[in-house]
Amino acid sequence: MLWGLSGRVYLETDLPPVFGKETLILNIIQDRPAGSPCWPINCIDKNIRRKIPVVTGRSIFKDINKNSNKNKIKTRITNLLLVSILISSIISLLIIAAACSSEDCGKDIILATTTSTYDSGLLDVLLPAFEQDSDYNIIPIAVGTGEALAMGERGVVDILLVHARSEEDRFVRQGFGIRRDDVMHNDFVIIGPPDDPSKIAGLDSMEAYKRISEEKALFVSRGDDSGTNKKELALWEEAGIAPYGSWYIQTGQGMGATIRIADQKQAYTIADRGTFLSHQENLSLVVLVDGGESLYNPYGIILINPKKHKDLKINYPGALDFLEFITGPRGQAIIKDFGIKEYGRPLFYPDIIKRGI
């Protein structure tokens, strides 16, 4: 699989069992070039890019977000034939990229968003609908909210769709964002094994966390500074507990991966309801604690402030176009209906449509 981000090209492949799964990471350029509206990878034809999967997972981004210590990024591919194929593919990709015009590049909007919007499948419906009615192309990067905000601070993206309200307000207050709008909400749920070894079913979130800690029952945390992870840590703090020990497992992964790990280990975890419902068919875990203000999960969209990054060409017009779409009648209607057919209920609830638009 091949994808691009921040001027880098990533190629991931499943090698034969003797080699295992390896990732080749090549730096093409360090960042969006000064005065450039995009990175080379973004200039690839939209129909080709549609086949490039969204980037997800903190394990990759921990290396991406560091511009120093490049030697820490190691390539471990021993099959020479495979290496030659990979290099040929990358060279071909760069030739295609080099042929793009500045005008074409300016049609790309770089969206940093939470993994829940990707894992739930919402992006697969929203983005094509926007592109159908727009001259712009959306390039989504699905990471934790903390990672998304950090990318926004550096000006390597054009717009954010995140879910950590206090951090979003700080981001705008410090001038990195110039506008934040409500988009939608759902709620967090605490899920666990059907036999519920710690007997947390029906408790409020604080009491549930206390019970899990007392029993030292396995708990799987994202541990990735995402909006969900921030909520989880806030709940531990509210309960007066600093979680640590062999019972507390941090995955450093997105929501979908963390749920699957919790399911494999028959452990407790916290998840946004949308992602849980979209994975429920393949899980044995069940919702044990839900409801209440402490588990409310609002999502906001933020425009990056171009004045903070005068050496970069933030695509403010495109970002504004997407903001107006997702908070407008069509975007809000898509959110309102998403999930009903498959899961019998919406995975997210629109914030604007209920007010009348």
Computed Rg: 21 Å
* H/I helix tally: 15
CATH fold-level topology of the domain at 186-296:
D-Maltodextrin-Binding Protein, domain 2
CATH homologous superfamily title of the domain at 186-296: Periplasmic binding protein-like II
Largest sheet: 8 strands, mixed
- Total number of strands: 13
Percentage of residues in DSSP E strands: 15-25%
Helix-strand category: alpha+beta
Distance between the termini: 41 Å
Listing every helix as H and every strand as E from the N terminus to the C terminus, the arrangement reads EEEHHHHEHHEHEHEHEHEHEHEEHHHE
CATH architecture of the domain at 186-296: 3-Layer(aba) Sandwich
| CATH top-level class of the domain at 186-296 | Alpha Beta
* Apparent shape: globular
Core attributes:
alpha+beta; 38% helix; 357 residues; 22% strand; D-Maltodextrin-Binding Protein, domain 2; 13 strands
What can you tell me about this protein's structure?
- The chain has 357 residues and is an alpha+beta fold.
- Among the domains are: 1-104, no CATH class; 186-296, 3-Layer(aba) Sandwich (D-Maltodextrin-Binding Protein, domain 2).
- 38% of the residues lie in helices and 22% in strands.
- The protein has 15 helices and 13 strands.
- It has helices at 46-49, 58-64, 80-98, 102-105, 115-119, 122-132, 145-154, 165-173, 205-215, 227-238, 255-265, 273-279, 316-326, 329-337, 340-343; strands at 2-5, 8-14, 21-27, 108-114, 137-143, 159-162, 177-192, 219-221, 248-250, 269-272, 286-289, 296-304, 349-350.
- Strands 4, 5, 6, 7, 10, 11, 12 and 13 form an 8-stranded mixed sheet that branches.
- Strand 2 and strand 3 form a beta hairpin.
- The longest helix is centred in the N-terminal third of the chain and has 19 residues, at 80-98.
